[in-house]
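Record filed here:
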Amino acid sequence: MSELKKTPLYDQHLAVGSKIVPFAGWRLPVSVSGIIEEHEAVRGAAGMFDVSHMGRFRVCGQGAAAALDYLTTGRCAALEDGKFLYTMLLREDGGVIDDLLVGRERDGVYLVVVNAANADKDLEHMEAGCGELGGCSLEDITGQFALVALQGPDSRQILKNLLSDRDAGRLEQLAYYWMDRYELLGEDTLISRTGYTGELGYEIFVRAEKAGDLWRELLESGVKPCGLGARDTLRLEMGYALYGHELDSEHTPLEAGLGWTVDLSKDDFIGKAALVQQKAEGIGTRLRGLKTSTARQIPRPGYGIRHKGKLVANLVSGGPAPSLGAGIGTAFLPAELAEPGTKLEMELRKNMVEVEVVRQPFYRQGTVKA
């Protein structure tokens, strides 16, 4: 087994007493002051996450746009400078290899952000595609930069306080899923208005050597450091997919409720034929949210879901929803049981408890587009 990697912020996590766990080949904080406290800080004020483990590639060349269009489900070639797109890498059978962000920095230069657990296979898959089509090259830039996610309704003002008046005004105008460059801590820094929490937030691509300085500045600004635990409860409340749970190679984006990431009008892309066929034949399995009636009934991944005593699914995600006072989870249900309002039973230890199929997101009061 290879040794676990450390992010440029590892020493900062130890300094504040973070609980460190192995995750996707990295040593990362699962919690600092407590998952619920961190969750509530992000919903009500601001928290920060070290997401430097996420894979980051730069795709360059005059053939980059065409290659990305062929490799992903979205229309990358239509991106303007500074615009990000949430999209998918698929197998030929439509199964998901990974979900990712693709952003156009400038003509012929694209930034790609992928899940840490899939970074190696994504890089190999994309290199093969670029090699087949020609006109582009890939560079793995993960180790060059730390990635800090500043999230919460107060995040804009906190970040503006670290910028010049001119850049603070520009940050005010930065729209959701766009990126731009700002002078931060004396350095030209890429900042995107993206995140995984459902709140107003930014992701800061800071040079690895300056990451500790940024982290300490944010701490002094009153931002609460947060770990993987709160990141998961926040994303689950929003119905955001996590690879290995709501997304995997056995399900298509159409089954996962992410058909909006798929542009079937494109000439061709890997997996298109399978999705066209699935759409024509009908989607028999659909990802749905499930909710318990009380916070004491906490769904967990793997718990069985039954209908009239028959096992019909297993939860792929589950946990508490601190913002809602309930337990929530997700499962791939037969289409005939996927209508909101449908009542099902969940195996909870030795008991059966009622759960209701609900529309996602579970939480709808977020400031993500404020």
In short: The chain has nine helices and 20 strands. The first strand starts at residue 5 and ends at 6. The radius of gyration is 21 Å. The mean pLDDT is 98.
